[in-house]
Amino acid sequence: MSEYKLFAGCVIPNRLPFLELASRKVFEKLGVQTSDAPFSCCPDPVGFQSTDKESWLALGARNLCIAEEEGKDIVSLCNGCTQTLKAVQYDIARASELEKQRISDILAKVNKEYKGSITVKHFVQVLIEDVGIDKIKSMIKKPIELKIACHTGCHYARPAEVMNWDDPEHPIYLRQLVEACGATPVDYEEEVLCCGAGAGNAKTEYGLGVLKRKLDSVISAGADCICVVCPACFTQFDTQQRALSKMVEKEYKIPVLYLTELMALGMGFTPKDLNLKYHGVKTKNIMEKIGL
Amino acid sequence: MSMDLEFRRIVLGKYMDSTLHYCLQCSRCNDVCPVNEVSDGAYNPRSVILNAFLGLKENLIGKPNNIAVWGCQICDTCNLTCPQDIELTDIFYIVKNLSVQAGEAPEYYVIQAKAILESGKAIPLQTAIERRRSQMGLPEVPTGFEDDVKIILKETELEEKLSKY
């Protein structure tokens, strides 16, 4: 397995370092080699692309150039970063000669040249394709016997023509990985519904409205917790349940685990090793349930 | 109400050969849009597409509390569902970019863009997190992108595009 450039993004390293910690531990156990690089903001496909597409495209292209210079593929810990980097590749490949020249002129100012020569992967793709379910199963020492609602999130596989990964309507790989950890993925009606983080950027109540629909579905399916693969979804679920509880006067407190946290627990790391204390929605009850 | 030909040209510029002409106004986008539901229809992707296609710019830009444009959270559900394969979110990006320059972006978007302009990251590192990282034994967050970002964003004139905020 060749070494990847780790694209950790903004949210994980700068706000949720415990998710980076779990990811690095899991990668090390599984032999996924990574190295760091001076990447800027990806930038955010929802926010910054809406603000100014050209700036978004140029900064995304610069990040790609950095990995290209080393001839290494990128592994990303975030749906948003993955989508931006893949969408920039997709857009440049289909741009007119004039548009291509414009991006190339901008990059020349920082001595970069875009080639489109590397592959960008979400870490779920690396776990499935490079490591494989069987190896992951063999590394699980402590089966996590919980009922889990899998939430892949929007930019994990949509738009399908850009992401070209998993089934955007019925994603299967997160379920397989959750199952490999000894957990049971539950069926719930709103599995592919957005977490609502994006809508909250424009109007808080809209974001909470989408979150409510999602969580009601998770609760009625009897899930113990939600498993996510994106720090934006993690933040929405982990920090906005309190605001939602206030808005609708009903308590919501479903714990959220990032996939690499779940895997690390299965590999024998303790909640203390993983700094689960930094979660907004406390994980104590589910940890007791599995004897941790 | 009149057609803004320049606006229509921008919207259709990239899509003359694509499927936008074949929008049936069937409203499947509205049916699946999570924000259409929670906003009681205040955000209506079908209507954004219709107004953009017809060049009716004043229906989209120049209104206070422009949720008609900014309700979209780019979840790409409408894109996935559209029976005519219209790339709705790509049209929404064009409309939103123009709305930004008209001074109508919600605060979140402006704060984020200014953070990227100043620090190169949407969410800059804080001292407390730096400390937490070192307690966890994590390496320092790589730097060395700041100058490149400033040069690139000067070239794309982001500051000028944000001049109304």
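The longest helix of chain B spans residues 88-101.
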